[in-house]
Design goal:
Keywords: Signal. By secondary structure, the chain is of the alpha+beta class. It contains one helix and seven strands; from the N terminus they run αβββββββ. It is about 20% helix and about 45% strand. The longest helix is centred in the first third of the chain and has 22 residues. The two termini are about 30 Å apart.
């Protein structure tokens, strides 16, 4: 009987710890990295953007600030699509914990994408 109670206590504690970790997640856990690919598109350098979810929870409806963003290279709208004042990543689908999404664009200079909102789901 004591072993069962101890096992239940461990399970409850682990679930509480897991929930506590997710409560601290925010758009600050979305890391945006960019690098030049070395390719030129219409004489403009191409950049690869990678967005990494560093949160142990799902993040859906990830929106990046992209006011003024321009590219001469078409971007798959399922990867990044203009949505109001921002750009919606992967059509609003969830990014898994510690997963990443990438897309490329080409313009004269690197654009400063910043995460502005997301829906965090720790279930």
């Amino acid at each position: 009987m004591a072993a069962i109670l101890q096992s239940l206590l461990v399970i409850v504690l682990l679930s509480l710890i897991g929930q506590g970790m997710c409560q601290n997640c925010s758009t600050g856990d979305l890391l945006v990295q960019q690098n030049q690919t070395g390719t030129n598109v219409q004489s403009k350098p191409e950049f690869k953007v990678t967005v990494l979810n560093e949160c142990p929870c799902l993040q859906a409806n990830v929106k990046l600030g992209c006011d003024g963003f321009q590219t001469v290279e078409p971007i798959d709208p399922l990867a990044l699509a203009k949505s109001g004042n921002g750009c919606l990543l992967i059509n609003g689908s969830s990014m898994g914990p510690f997963s990443q999404v990438s897309f490329t664009y080409a313009w004269d200079t690197q654009f400063p994408f910043t995460p502005i909102s997301s829906d965090i789901n720790c279930n």
